[in-house]
Amino acid sequence: MKIGVIGCGEVGILYAGAFHAVCENLYLCDPRPSPRALFFSQQNHVALSTSLGEWLQQTDLVLSCVVGTVSLEVASTAFPYMRRGAMYADMTTCDPAQIREAAVLGERGGINYVDVAIMGAVALGGVKTALLCAGPGAAKLSTLFQTIGAPARTVNNGAPGDAAALKILRSVFTKGLEALAIETFLAAEKQGVTDELYEVLADIDRNPLRSTLESFVRTHLIHAKRRLHEIEEAERLLRESGLPVAVLPGVRALFERTCRYLEHESVHELPATARDAFDWLANGAKRELEVAAPEKAFPSTNVSPGSSKLRRADSA
Q: Which pairs with CB-CB distance under 8 Å and at least 24 residues apart come from 280-285?
């Protein structure tokens, strides 16, 4: 297989090095190659171009490892040079909407476009960093990555953009959890109870992550009002400790929002599933958005107001 790598930064050189040992021919491209890229090219006798061009016709697979801001531009420039049936793996961190747009352009040119999300830090994991692939050629590409020891898997029935969206959503969760951990444990350190706090939180680690998260979501609707008071007390405690409080105000705002929804439509039973709770919360958000800015309201969810599976009763 003949492979081209566009963008010879940390990611590009990492996968170029891994594929160099198993592919028939390797091509590199970077408009401003770094000393590391030049050294790799010279040491391994690999052609290094500074622009996209006819060399792309020789490739069976192209890995795009550029920065996300130029992902669509690079793809649209590369496609006309590539032969029909070739594969293009977009490994950039990019807006899912741009990835979908690039996929449409690729399809028109007969290019097999695959969205590849790097689910971790390659500086730490190297080629062992998990990859998530989405698109018509995702299964084939995952197998190719596995030949170099990269743990790649596909999104079930995934289209281009789905892997990128999942990576962004993962970041929402992990970065939010990171911020919350910092805020929580700074307060624990200030009060000298850090070790005890780990013990108090240990039960969370004993359950599967999905069970824990779905429990949070399902019980949220019934206990939002009570939990809001706990959050207000926690925020007061942190402020009295003289520590900066950044995360809890956002948490409080979310619980206040749910309480507003409950004033319009009360809930008396635990939702049967987390999806039922998601539907109820989405409908509440839709109602608020329609009141605030009707022209920006998003499409309704699967459960219409007044007919939820939650058997909710309208508030007086």
A: 280/221, 280/308, 280/310, 280/312, 281/221, 283/308, 284/257, 284/258, 284/260, 285/257, 285/261
